[in-house]
Each structure stands twice: as structure tokens, then as C-alpha cells.
Specification:
Layout: E1 2-24, E2 34-44, E3 49-54, E4 60-66, E5 70-83, H1 97-103, H2 113-116, H3 129-135, H4 145-159, E6 161-162, H5 173-179, E7 181-182, H6 184-197, E8 202-209, E9 225-234, E10 238-242, E11 254-260, E12 269-275, E13 279-291
Parallel strand pairs: 6-7
Antiparallel strand pairs: 1-4, 1-5, 1-12, 1-13, 2-5, 3-4, 8-9, 8-11, 9-10
Helix pairs in contact: 3-6, 4-6
């Protein structure tokens, strides 16, 4: 499946901004099953300084500075991305979760140093005994890691209600836990916190979600929107993605942009400004399928291809139609 993705962010300021510095993480990553065919980033006013770099997690980041008076900032990212379907790993063949946890006890082997960093608390996610207790029914003794992760994904989908007005990006995870309401960012954070509370590494994934609803199927939350899900690390397989907002395993309708410990590492646009007064932020995302070819072969993967927001903008706008394999 090939997509044309347009991600438009508009800031309107009540007073002139004299200078601003920003970072935009809106360039999709190249992956084994995802090829970035084209990408452009338009910024108005034209930045005085602009530099594309790779951050610590391998995400491409455009740093830019506007050094002229302005009362409006528009950022438009346009991507053409091809995503190939993948067969999910056999969950029952993954190692027991306790065995995986033991690999991330000091000292760790060199082979797991990279995922080890995702086993710790981060600025927006804290481990807790309460979250460990919530996760344990999915992780009985001897349960294969991915079987437990799939069950946790299903339970979050069942136990928490999608509510786009219940939280903001500043809402603590503890409040989401108490209210049992939130959006994709909250549910990804919750799943990660549960896994880390058991000593398992998990990371946050940002991207886009396209919906192609089969007739009679339920609607999928977050169509044509920025979206978020999580990955759990399995030593014998690698990172495995799960989407608790929709109780699916991401496939060709999820487009990955960035990885991090939590949302703060992958915010689509962030920055600091001088002046500006009050401001309004508007975001529009369009994910347009350009072709459908069920006979597509897996895409070539080049791991060396690294160059091919303000947090309030990263929200699910509304429920939308659904497709994709449900996890029962």
C-alpha cells in the first residue's frame, strides 16, 4: 500500500513573535516493511536557519529558527510512503516473559543494551506496583511474552474508554488510570508503564493511521490522524508493535514516524518562542491511499537510510471507521 500523507500544523499568535526555535519530527522512518519514497517539509515564514539531523533514537528531526516578526507559523509535511504487510510473529513461540525479564537485570549482555534503555522510567511514564498488579493477570508464570502482551493490549482496549475530551497531553498517567478514559497517547503510555513495571522494555511509537472499513465492521479510532501505539521487545524476534486503542497489531494501515521512551521524545512539533501572546494551534492530517496491490513483495530494507509540536496538537480528532485484524 502506498500513501500520500499531508500533515499541516498552523499556529496563529495574538501578538507578534520576535524569534522562535523549533524541532519537527514528521519524517517517516524507513523500516523493513516501510519505504519512504518521498518527503518534503514546507515552513512559512522561511526559517533563517534550518538543519536536518538524526536524534538519539534514530528519528529524523528538522531543527529550524525563525528570526523575523511573525504572527502565524505554518508547517506542512508531505510524505509518500509504501507499507508492505507482514506476518505477525507466532506469539506462542516467544520465550516466557520471566526469561525475558531476567535478560534485563544488571549486568545486561551487549546484545540487549539498546532495548535496555526502554526498561526504565521516563519523563511521562513511571512504573508502579499498582500498574504491575494490573498487568499480572496477563503474565501468569511461564506465559510466553507476546501472549501476555497481546492479552494486556486487549484488556486496555476493553477496560479503558476512548474519550478525546477526557485528557490533554499534560494529563498525568495517574489520572488516566483513575478515570479509565483517554486517547491513543494515554493508552500507549499505560501499556508501556505496565510492561516496565514488570521489568520488561517497551517503547512509544508515533505515526499515522489510515482506515479502510470493511462493510459491517466497527469503526477504527483515529483515522487520518496522528496516532500512537507501543512496542515490546522480544529477544528472539525484536520489537513487536501493538495498538491498544484499537486492539490490533499494526500492519499496512499504520505508518511509523518516530520511536522514543514516551511522547516527549517524539512530539511532532515542539519549540520555544519569544513574544506571541496567546496562540491557537490547528492540525490537519490526510492519509490518502494511492494504490492497492495485494501481490506486493516485502520491501527492501536499508538500515543505513537515515536521510532519504507543540504537544497539544497531537490528539486523536474523533472516532473513525475500522479495519485490521482484531486481537481476541
Amino acid at each position: 500500500m502506498t500513501y500520500l500523507i499531508t500533515h499541516r500544523t498552523l499556529y496563529d499568535y495574538s501578538e507578534p513573535v520576535t524569534v522562535s526555535h523549533h524541532a519537527a519530527r514528521v519524517k517517516p522512518r524507513p523500516l523493513r516493511n516501510q519505504r519512504r519514497d518521498d518527503f518534503s517539509l514546507s515552513i512559512s515564514p522561511e526559517p533563517a536557519l534550518r538543519k536536518m539531523r538524526t536524534d538519539f533514537f534514530g528519528n529524523r528531526v528538522c531543527f529550524f529558527s525563525i528570526q523575523e516578526l511573525h504572527d502565524r507559523l505554518e508547517i506542512v509535511a508531505t510524505s509518500r510512503v509504501t507499507v508492505s504487510p507482514e506476518t505477525p510473529p507466532a506469539a506462542t513461540l516467544s520465550p516466557p516473559w520471566e526469561e525475558v525479564r531476567s535478560e534485563f537485570s544488571d549486568p545486561v549482555s551487549p546484545e540487549v543494551v539498546e532495548p535496555y534503555q526502554f526498561a526504565f522510567a521516563s519523563s511521562m511514564i513511571r512504573s508502579s506496583p499498582e500498574l504491575a498488579d494490573y498487568a499480572r493477570p496477563s503474565f501468569a508464570p511461564g506465559v510466553p511474552l507476546l501472549v501476555g502482551a497481546l492479552d494486556l493490549n486487549r484488556r486496555i482496549f476493553r477496560d479503558f474508554k476512548y474519550d478525546p475530551v477526557a485528557t490533554s497531553v499534560a494529563t498525568p498517567l495517574e489520572e488516566v488510570w483513575r478515570s479509565r478514559r483517554g486517547v491513543c497517547q494515554d493508552f500507549a503510555h499505560l501499556a508501556i508503564a505496565c510492561l516496565r513495571s514488570l521489568g520488561l522494555p517497551a517503547r512509544y511509537v508515533s505515526g499515522y493511521l489510515r482506515t479502510r472499513p470493511p462493510e459491517g465492521q466497527p469503526r477504527l479510532v483515529g483515522a487520518d490522524a496522528s496516532h500512537a501505539w507501543f512496542s515490546v521487545y522480544c529477544p528472539s524476534i525484536g520489537w513487536v508493535d501493538l495498538d491498544p486503542t484499537n486492539n490490533v497489531q499494526p500492519d499496512e494501515e499504520h505508518i511509523t514516524v518516530a520511536y522514543g521512551r514516551d511522547f516527549s521524545d517524539v512530539s511532532p512539533v515542539s519549540g520555544v518562542i519569544t513574544g506571541g501572546g496567546r496562540h491557537e494551534v490547528r492540525v490537519a492530517v490526510d492519509v490518502e491511499p494511492l494504490e492497492i496491490d495485494e501481490d506486493d513483495e516485502p520491501l527492501p530494507y536499508d538500515p543505513t537510510d537515515l536521510d532519504s509540536v507543540d504537544p497539544e496538537i497531537y490528539r486523536d480528532p474523533k472516532p473513525a471507521p475500522a479495519s485490521g485484524p482484531s486481537i481476541d
